[in-house]
């Protein structure tokens, strides 16, 4: 069930009506039941898989932090292996099962792929990284095991965040689940603002660009001119950003109506001045996970082994391993690995430049230099989206046609399509720029007359966006991960 469907809207309204009349303890049971019901709309197999993993993680975490447990580290690795194996088996079976079948058949063993394939539970990638973080935090003592199985299940399966995050830490979300919630007018206003902004991002900007998106440019780039290809990847950059940011904004708003604040996941990433800042603004909860559990442990391990901060291995290995894990988490494909490698390369270059700058330039760049840096990072980020969307051979052909600056090939984009696409890009920037300067609550801080005008504009845009969909809106892009 899509979170932008009428069915989900009715489901949420029923949950809210019951939620507001129940005391705190019963509210949590209601939310857990609603989360399991939400999963059941996908399939009963999905419910069974998530229930099994939740129970297993709950029991393992208790042994990891049990007093005088000499085998805590063993249980930690059992828990991590269980989560990662589940993800690999269910998400990457199309990648490695053919190889297993090939070698088994060579030995004369009859083997059927169909018998091993299972439906990939929606949101499993997000669930697994949250579960791994929970076990590691318990082991390191920075979080405590959740005593109640019901509370732990709600932490893992809370329906607003289940499909595509945010990826929550137990030390942040559990206190909000364990304590009574207060939903006041300010909370409601801020939550409705997030929902409206998210709907505009998804239904108007992302889906509008999706409907106008010239799909063939990412399939046969050799048939198109460089300007056509560059405009296509630019529109794709704003489509994927507004699609995922729109999802996050909607679910944070829904959770806010329940008095439970979820983590901020996007902070105007296309205004970043370097790639380190970009990953502090784009998909923030995943970036923080990669930093805390991949990048920093690897860096500390190299430093403990005598490699100083200027050593090539310390400069190169952590960014590349981190982005390799990020790419593999998204999808096991050559194009995704190239996307991760391009981001890692940019980070390494920035780290080398930072070492040089410490010796020479000491003061912060002027505003014009910062603006130039924003444009450069944005341009490189847009180019890096190419292999994110396609496999390596097609991506290389795409780059070849772009950097030839050729005007030959199909280059005529209908004027109306171009103007609508540019308007949607401008609309995205008009939403981002005030938030970049004054934070995401900027729209609820306006005078009543301005807020009324913004609401009416949003209603008009959403009406046009909904009318443009001849059938159901396309699913969220990150839902596939």
SS-derived structural category: mainly alpha
Gyration radius, to the nearest Å?
24 Å
Describe the largest sheet. Answer: none
Show unreliable segments: none
| String of helices and strands | HHHHHHHHHHHHHHHHHHH
Mean pLDDT: 86
Helix content: over 70%
Which shape, going by the Cα principal axes?
Answer: globular
- The end-to-end span amounts to 16 Å
Number of beta-strand segments: 0
The helix count comes to 19
Strand content: under 5%
What does this structure look like?
The protein has 481 residues and is mainly alpha-helical. It has helices at 6-21, 24-40, 44-64, 72-91, 93-106, 124-140, 149-157, 159-162, 170-178, 185-212, 226-257, 275-281, 284-304, 312-330, 334-359, 367-389, 392-403, 415-438, 448-468. Helix 10 (185-212) packs antiparallel against helix 11 and helix 10 packs antiparallel against helix 18. The protein starts with 5 loop residues before the first helix and ends in a 13-residue tail after the last helix. The mean pLDDT is 86.
